[in-house]
């Protein structure tokens, strides 16, 4: 059972020292929740995703690699979709996470009909075998997708936009909306995992 925000004080140890991002601890996050500061929380979650996923393989990297960009992108899609759906994890649901993600984001509409192939040959290939399978290839030039060839640079740019759109939605939606309820469920899990002894 996930902890509710009021129960975080029952977690042993100082929450001030447990970082959720480079600039936000669990304690600071709890303060934002208490204030229902939607903008600050949306900014924090955007920072968390950028610094953990996209920036290390794009902004701060002198030797960018399309394969690494796609590996990180696949991890981020599952994490971002868990936030959108309010799921503590994607266990037994990974394939569905990719279908749902592509269905919900217009900038990935060209992946909707091939979501299952993408999941099997790109996501699972990269994360389980350290290679794409089924003839799929990753490049860094050309169109987003052409046959079984994916441009990782364009894919990452669209993923960055999906994150920006999600954070904009968090800023715009009411605190008690379904978007925020899902977000809070996922963050309960994140905070519980981060503070586990």
UniProtKB/TrEMBL annotation:
Domain of life: Bacteria
Protein's UniProt name: Uncharacterized protein
Record organism: Pseudomonas brassicacearum (strain NFM421)
